[in-house]
Amino acid sequence: MTELGTVVWPPAPIRTERLVLRESEAPDRAAFIELFALPEVRTYLGGPRPREELERAVPELPGRRPGLFVIDLDGTMIGTVSLDRRDADRPGHLRPDGGEAEIGYMLLPTAWGRGYAAEACAAALDWFAGAFPGEQVVLCTQTANDRSMRLAVKLGFTEVERFEEYGAEQWFGAWSSGQVRATGT
Ligand SMILES: CC(C)(COP(=O)(O)OP(=O)(O)OC[C@H]1O[C@@H](n2cnc3c(N)ncnc32)[C@H](O)[C@@H]1OP(=O)(O)O)[C@@H](O)C(=O)NCCC(=O)NCCS
User: Fold this and answer.
1) Within 10 Å of residue 170's Cβ, how many Cβ atoms?
2) What is the pTM of this model?
């Protein structure tokens, strides 16, 4: 994974109807550990990591990098949405040298099923479209990950290809700013 590139970071916190997208803070550490330790969150992301290992490895200020937003609901972290550069040596690309901006998202299960992921990702994509005008964003998710597949389509990603990676079928899609997004649920 490569960092996003030259961009003013962090931007001012981004407010949506119900959420704030912001840089991580020290009190978010416990939620970061949950995101990597909970089997429900890690089902399609390589499985959970042992909590003790995370307690040792996660820094005091986790997730501090350009492109990583904490999703904040009423002052508490409920997940992350990130934009990073896709490694050239992985399958799934729009251009031969790779390095496309790729969106990723993880929410705590207590925050699923309320449209928070869609609201946060749409705001992150809007921010990206302003910071990198005209650039496409890609998304890769296991086809078995129903929630993620529904979210991808809702955000306006369209299928580019499917392939096998990590022993599972992957859906690889692309998004351009100005593309019409589905509204509501
Ligand atoms: C993928 C993930 C972010 C999707 O979260 P989610 O909460 O299902 O996604 P959304 O924000 O789009 O919410 C959609 C649901 O909220 C419901 N909803 C309730 N109130 C809503 C509102 N006000 N606005 C919109 N949707 C609303 C929708 O009806 C929909 O329900 P459904 O899933 O039963 O159809 C979440 O499952 C997750 O974190 N998974 C683990 C990490 C992961 O696999 N990431 C993918 C990496 S590629």
Assistant:
1) 20
2) 0.95
CA of 182 to the centre of ligand 1 (A): 14
Mean pLDDT of the chain: 95
What pLDDT is recorded for position 3?
74
Low-confidence ranges of the chain (pLDDT < 70): 1-2, 179-185
**Strands 137-142, 101-107: pairing kind:** parallel
- CA of 18 from ligand 1 middle (Å) equals 15
Q: Which residue among 140, 148, 149 is best mutated to probe the pocket of ligand 1, counting the most ligand atoms within 8 A of its Cβ?
A: 148
Convert the pLDDT of each residue in 50-73 to its tens digit.
999 999 999 999 999 999 999 999
Q: Mutation test of ligand 1: which of 147, 170, 171 has the most ligand atoms closer than 8 Å to its C-beta?
A: 147
pLDDT of residue 5: 82
Closest atom of ligand 1 to 140 CA is: 48
Out of 36, 86, 102, 114, mutate this one to test ligand 1's pocket (max ligand atoms within 8 Å of CB): namely 114
Domain 14-175: give its CATH code: 3.40.630.30
Helices 116-131, 146-155: axis angle to 10 degrees equals 50
For 153, phi then psi, to 5°, come to: -70, -40
The full set of domain ranges for the chain reads 14-175
State residue 22 phi and psi, 5-degree precision: -150, 170
